[in-house]
Here is the input.
Amino acid sequence: MARQRPTPMLDAAKLRENALTSIRLGVEDFECSRHQGGDPARALSAIRNLFAGVLLLFKYKIATCVEDPADAAALILNPPEVLPRSDDAGGIEWVPVGNFKTTTIDVGTIRKRFEAFEIDIDWDVIRTLQDCRNHLEHLHPAHTLGEVADFVAELFPVLRNFIQLELGESPAAILGNAWKIMLLHHNFFIDTRQQCEEAWSEACVPEGMESWLNECKCPGCGSTLLAPAQESLDAGDTVEYNDDRFQTTCIACGYTVLIAPLMIVALERAHSYDPRDGDEPSLEGCNQCGRRTFLIHEQSCLWCAAELEYSECEICEENLTQADQDSGGLCSNHAHAYEKFMRED
Ligand SMILES: [Zn+2]
Ligand SMILES: [Zn+2]
Ligand SMILES: [Zn+2]
Here is the structure.
């Protein structure tokens, strides 16, 4: 028999304390990162501490779902490897080898534990936070300040709901001043985002492009808090017709830049494809307005709303493209056949 040493015990109270300390440190880093023009190193540290703190808090919750500290440890630590062994009767048995590891479970396993204990959480938000955490390491440090500010704002409701509903505690009571800072920042973020949305509604953004406006980030700091530039509004310009000069200003860092290219880059990113995989493009230049905003499969332009005159082949009903429009409603095969027929006639 493989010798099994007893599972280590787990000190849930310690886990909780470490979680709260990590979150408090993260908020402190966040505060400091915003002083004197911004400190990107502190911003990175804020993300690391906040993400670590949230995961610790999740693990604490898992640990409190069982009564026996040994069970709690078994749920939180990565289990030993399970290997096959002969059962001496022509079959196999699966036996855990070694001890519970000293490493703790990752986000994916936390999710499985939550499902097992019916703990609800908005995993979409957690995935966004995790992406943000993984992503930050690869970013230019100077670009992180706005992104971290967005992260802290989005973390707020997740943390609030989790602490109140799953832990049955008061966030203000257990996080103290850190909670006050997060609350103020979150409220600022929500108010500002709403003001930005209202201001954009004056700017005549093409309807098809509205969702891509929401995907835009400041090229200077990564913040999503982008407002239409006041000069552009004052000049009576619209995004739809004056995209060559309509500017946006970042509320977080003051960077000012043309808005249209940001929207088109966001659109292109979502429609990126790799020809090496045999992928086909799904986006192309529009014959009507010239912008790269024509959706090939939808047969319409997101910017100018142009649609195809001939949408399918009269003979085979195949979907037509902008390039087929000169053939009077035939696909390239049938246009070809028709031409040949006319020549022979
Ligand atoms: Zn910015
Ligand atoms: Zn167009
Ligand atoms: Zn055809």
About this structure: Residues 202-269 form one domain.
